[in-house]
Each structure stands twice: as C-alpha cells, then as structure tokens.
Design a protein that fits this description.
alpha/beta
C-alpha cells in the first residue's frame, strides 16, 4: 500500500499513458476501490515501458543530431534510367529512350517540425531493401511559417517526380508535421489525383496541446486544436481517392491527447495503426514501424470512405 500511496501524485501523468486508472472518466465505481490493489504492478509495467521508450528516444536524438548536418542540403535528383529498346515495338525508336514502368510508385518522405530528411535514413534503407528503389525526401525550410505554403511546395515536388519518373501517382510518408502537410495537399490542393497512399507517423490530425510555449512559431499554432488549417482539413472531402494510414503511439510525448494522431474523417478511407511502446522520435526509425509502413504501401486499396479495423505494431 505504501507503493500505491507514493504513486498517487503521479496519477495525472500515468492516466495519460495508461487509460483506465482510477479517476479516468467512464471508470465504473467499485465499492472499496479494489482496482487500487493492482495499481502498483500496472505502474511498474508503465514505468518500465516509459523508461525503455525514453532511453530509445534519447539515443535516437543523439544519433539524429550527428546525422542532421548531412540532411540540410536538398538531395540530388537522379535521372531515371532509360529502358532498353524493345524490338517488338514498331513505334519505339532506339534513339528515343523510354522510361521504365516501376513495380511500385515512387515514395516521397516528409520530415517533421525543425527537422530534415536525415531522419529517414533507416526507413529509406528498409524500403530499398524490399524493392522500393524510387524513394525521395523533400526538405522544407525550418523558417516555413505556413502549412499551406509547404503543401504547395510538396505539390510542385510531386509533379516534378511524376514527370521525371513517368509515374502517375506516388506514395507519401509524413512524420509529425509532415503528415499534416501531405494531408493538406491531398485534401485541399487536389493532391488525391497524385497521391495513392498517405502514411502519417505521429501526426496531430486534430491538434496537439503539448508545449504551449512553442506557440511563438506560426506553424506550431496551426497544429493546435481549432486552428484554421485543421478546420479546413475537417471540411468534407467527398470523392478523395487517397488511402490514409495513420500510425499513432501509446507513448508519444508530443501528442496531447494521444488519440490526436488517429485520423477520423467521414469522407476518407483510413486505417489507424497503434504502435506500442515507441516514442515520437522513434516512429520513423523503429524496425517494426518500417515493416508496418511497407505492409501499408503494399496493401490492396479499400473502397473509398471505408475504414479498416485497428492494428497494433509492437
């Protein structure tokens, strides 16, 4: 009972990461509060998960700080190789190279706030090892102050990729703010004609309240609940052709509330995937998440407006 008593001051923090603790809305009242008997064990399990996730976040942050300089400059765009001439095609001239038809559409990676393309080093390697060789990252300036402006830049970037590769559509993976930029392009700028699948990792789809002092930056204010940008994204999007897959973590320190990283929109085909025991920075780095992303990109498209059941990545 001493452990339980000592843990009571931590309940507000624990309630955020462990739904169902005493004091949470909707918890059935039980005479004598027997649920407190299991509280020490539950808090111990929670603290271990938090400790592991925090240690992983610290390690990833340290590594990312080392890699950050390598991702400041926009990556070089490699020209797509020409396909060999087809003698059976009478309209094909050997002097006129033709772009090959890829097995998979190109993948565009979008980093989060105050970040750059170096965060996707391991994800790019994972995608390439499993047959996705056309993977490109878009760096937007940390001075960007408007999600709409970044979405327009993304649109121009995707048009250039499609023209260069001969692909009609692309897949997009966005971490945190990058997911909102991709979503704005799809929903508000006609990007659903170009984006086959949009995967978001820890993206505040309905706004996050974490770190109020960060409101000094305009783009952070756009990620707050009730912002004009989020209100636009909540508008009807009938006929949207893009498939959405939203990865959210039960230990994401940047999402407040945690469920804000789940996408809920009546007009969108969405699959929300719960990630267990992984922090915000680890989402684009964790091997299990990379596997989930590959599976999402390879999945058969569902009917427009249909929402798939929840999955868990551990």
């Amino acid at each position: 009972m001493k452990v339980t008593t000592a843990a009571l001051p931590l309940l507000p923090l624990c309630q955020r990461f462990l739904p169902g603790l005493p004091g949470m809305p909707g918890l059935p009242a039980v005479p004598g509060l027997p649920e407190l008997a299991s509280l020490p064990g539950r808090l111990t399990g929670l603290s271990l998960n938090l400790l592991k996730a925090s240690a992983l976040e610290a390690a990833i942050l340290a590594g990312h700080l080392l890699l950050y300089p390598s991702g400041i400059i926009q990556e070089r765009r490699a020209s797509a190789p020409a396909a060999p001439p087809d003698p059976a095609d009478p309209h094909h001239s050997p002097a006129t190279p033709r772009l090959p038809t890829p097995d998979h559409p190109p993948v565009v990676l979008l980093h989060g706030f105050i970040d750059n393309r170096s965060v996707f080093l391991f994800l790019r390697r994972s995608l390439a090892q499993h047959g996705r060789h056309q993977v490109e990252s878009l760096n937007y300036s940390p001075l960007t102050c408007d999600i709409r402006t970044a979405a327009e830049l993304l649109g121009r970037h995707i048009e250039e990729i499609c023209e260069r590769t001969g692909s009609e559509r692309v897949d997009v993976v966005g971490h945190s703010l990058g997911g909102l930029i991709g979503r704005y392009y799809v929903q508000r700028l006609g990007g659903d004609q170009r984006v086959r699948t949009l995967v978001t990792l820890g993206t505040p789809h309905s706004g996050t309240r974490v770190i109020p002092l960060a409101n000094a930056h305009p783009i952070v204010r756009q990620m707050r609940p009730g912002s004009a940008v989020l209100d636009e994204l909540a508008l009807p999007a009938a006929g949207c052709r893009t498939q959405f897959v939203s990865f959210w973590s039960d230990l994401d320190q940047v999402m407040d509330p945690l469920e804000t990283a789940c996408l809920d929109h009546a007009d969108l085909a969405v699959q929300n995937v719960r990630v267990s025991g992984v922090g915000h920075l680890a989402l684009p780095v964790h091997p299990a998440v990379a596997t989930g992303i590959r599976q999402a990109l390879d999945a058969i498209e569902t009917e427009p407006g249909k929402r798939s059941g929840g999955l868990t990545v551990a």
